[in-house]
């Protein structure tokens, strides 16, 4: 197992093909100018120490050296084993609405993408908490069981889309009921459900489900994404809008956020509602809730002993650049004597 600590620096690798193309252009330009100057065979005889192979060797050493240094800056880390560690934290389940109404773009880039961004930002605020993820529309579906591996959670989060669940609609009650099964009823760990939706609920059992969840000590925060004005649901192919969702009367469906439903659900379970259109408001609200929630000690399984490997790549890179500096473009005496490239006249 491995991870990259500073992935942003991978963009520096663009210099490798740029330098390689520049080298090829220079070689082409030199060859063209030599042809203009005179006969190539005669030029070679006038410059017997000029090597054909050395310039290629130097650019290969240089590119490998730079690549190795960039990888060193990224700092690959390698894990050696799984181990159980004791932590203090909260058990949090994120329930994300992936119904078709969440494709509406009244919130940029869309309600669903905004929801993913919010969850990702909230995960960034966590420390030692365990998290799980649920997707729901007409049905609820477990995406990730309780874990402390936030990188894995983000990976599963990004894969969520309306096509994951065939049954369309929005049944918030099923999301709450499924979330309750993520927690151990006998466990004294603080339990929190963060439910993100536009509030379009096609069932009438959400408040009842929240009341049942309250019995196991579950607290619910609801986050409303979308606008009261609403917007159409785009139907796309290859990222291009072809049409919009229509109802039985062939009218374009306008989906609107229903903050009232989400507020009632939150109040039924000692929680609160926050406007998801403002990332700052959501993060501040969730941080305040977490700061005022009691943390409990629990065991967590995680990849341990992640060791930085940057020093090996940096050392190898600088070694290659050091060798490149001392490699001359003229032929080496003993190589010239071997006549590897048949440069001597017969």
Structural notes for this entry:
By secondary structure, this protein is α/β, with parallel strands linked by helices. The protein contains eleven helices and 15 strands. Strands 6-5-4-7-8-13 form a six-stranded mixed sheet, with helices on both faces. It has a three-stranded antiparallel sheet with strand order 1-2-15. Helix 4 (about 110-125) runs antiparallel to helix 5 (about 150-160), helix 4 (about 110-125) runs parallel beside helix 9 and helix 6 (about 170-180) runs parallel beside helix 7 (about 205-215). The longest helix is centred in the N-terminal third of the chain and has 23 residues, at about 15-35.
Short synopsis of the structure:
This protein is α/β, with parallel strands linked by helices and 346 residues long. It has 11 helices and 15 strands.
Order of helices and strands: EHHHEEEHEEHHEHEEEEEHEHEEHH
- Radius of gyration based on Cα positions: 30 Å
Structural class: alpha/beta
Largest sheet: 6 strands, mixed
**Average pLDDT for all residues:** 83
N- to C-terminal separation? 58 Å
Q: Can you give the helix content as a percent range?
A: 40-55%
Discrete helix count: 11
Report the sheet-strand fraction.
15-25%
Low-confidence spans: pLDDT under 50, at least 5 residues?
Answer: none
Morphology: elongated
Q: How many DSSP-defined strands?
A: 15
Strand numbers in spatial order across the main sheet = 6-5-4-7-8-13
């Amino acid at each position: 197992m491995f991870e990259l600590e500073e992935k942003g620096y991978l963009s520096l690798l663009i210099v490798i093909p740029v330098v390689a193309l520049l080298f090829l252009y220079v070689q082409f330009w030199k060859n063209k100018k030599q042809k203009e100057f005179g006969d190539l065979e005669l030029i070679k005889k006038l410059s017997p120490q000029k090597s054909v192979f050395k310039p290629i060797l130097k650019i290969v050493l240089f590119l490998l050296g730079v690549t190795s240094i960039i990888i060193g800056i990224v700092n690959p880390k390698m894990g050696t084993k799984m181990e159980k560690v004791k932590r203090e934290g909260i058990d949090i389940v994120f329930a994300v609405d992936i119904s078709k109404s969440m494709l509406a773009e009244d919130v940029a880039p869309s309600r669903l993408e905004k929801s993913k961004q919010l969850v990702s930002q909230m995960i960034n605020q966590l420390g030692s908490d365990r998290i799980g993820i649920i997707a729901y529309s007409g049905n609820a579906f477990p995406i990730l069981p309780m874990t402390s591996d936030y990188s894995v959670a983000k990976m599963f989060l990004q894969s969520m889309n309306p096509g994951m669940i065939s049954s369309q609609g929005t049944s918030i009650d099923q999301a709450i009921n499924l979330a309750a099964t993520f927690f151990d009823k006998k466990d004294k760990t603080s339990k929190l459900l963060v439910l993100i939706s536009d509030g379009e609920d096609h069932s009438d059992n959400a408040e009842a489900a929240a009341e049942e969840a309250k019995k196991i000590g579950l607290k619910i925060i609801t986050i409303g994404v979308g606008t009261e004005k609403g917007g159409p649901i785009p139907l796309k192919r290859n990222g291009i809008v072809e049409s919009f969702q229509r109802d039985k009367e062939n009218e374009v469906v306008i989906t609107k956020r229903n903050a009232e439903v989400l507020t009632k659900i939150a109040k039924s379970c000692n929680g609160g509602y926050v406007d998801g259109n403002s990332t700052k408001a959501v993060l501040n609200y969730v941080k305040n809730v977490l700061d005022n929630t009691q943390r409990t000690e629990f065991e967590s399984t995680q990849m341990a002993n992640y060791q930085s490997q940057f020093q090996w790549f940096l050392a190898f890179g600088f070694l290659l650049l050091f060798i490149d500096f001392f490699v001359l473009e003229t032929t080496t005496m003993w190589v010239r004597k071997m006549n590897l490239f048949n440069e001597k006249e017969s």
